[in-house]
Amino acid sequence: MDNLMHEIANCRLCADRFAQTQTQHSPRPVAWFSPKARILIAGQAPGMRVHQSGRPFTDPSGDRLRDWMGIGSDIFYDTSRIAIVPMAFCFPGYDAKGADLPPPAICAKTWRDRVLNTLPNIRLTLLVGGHAMKWHLGKTGVTDIVSNWNDHLPHVIPLPHPSWRNTAWIKKHPWFEADLLPALRSRVQEVLDDN
Ligand code: SF4
């Protein structure tokens, strides 16, 4: 486990790719997990703020995700309860429109199975965004998958990415806040309370 963390922290597989982006940044893997974790947050990839802080979801998306889950930072960052394992551990850079580039596929290919194999106690997986849904469910189409969130209970709950870019999506689908979020908070609490 410590070896794996060390290997990830020192990974430079995407160094050339990142050097060619507008920000010309170096890899800075942000991995946050321990074998005791019971909830897995399968996210997308760090944004620039997380790249700078070295801690996952230290941005408005994180504030929104914690609100969705009904928990504070103390529980969110407690690796004995929650593992945060995105589809790529490093900030991928920006595209020409200023949006984050997709997570480099090589990251999940290289690390994901190895990391998930160290997490035997996961009882609830939150699939945050389309990349995580594709990998974990083998399906695409965020709206379709999230609107059928009941199909995946009790072990998986699919969510749109909590980015401000999805605010219009959330407004357009009122069942998300009315039905899915109460069920999410209830299931998160149930898993956290079940020792
Ligand atoms: S994104 Fe993943 S594969 Fe690429 S450098 Fe970072 S840790 Fe390595």
From TrEMBL:
One Pfam family matching this protein: UDG
Record-linked Gene3D superfamilies: Uracil-DNA glycosylase-like domain
Domain of life: Bacteria
Domain Uracil-DNA glycosylase-like: 30-185
Protein name, entry field: Uracil-DNA glycosylase
The species this protein was found in: Marivivens niveibacter
Classification of source organism: Bacteria, Pseudomonadati, Pseudomonadota, Alphaproteobacteria, Rhodobacterales
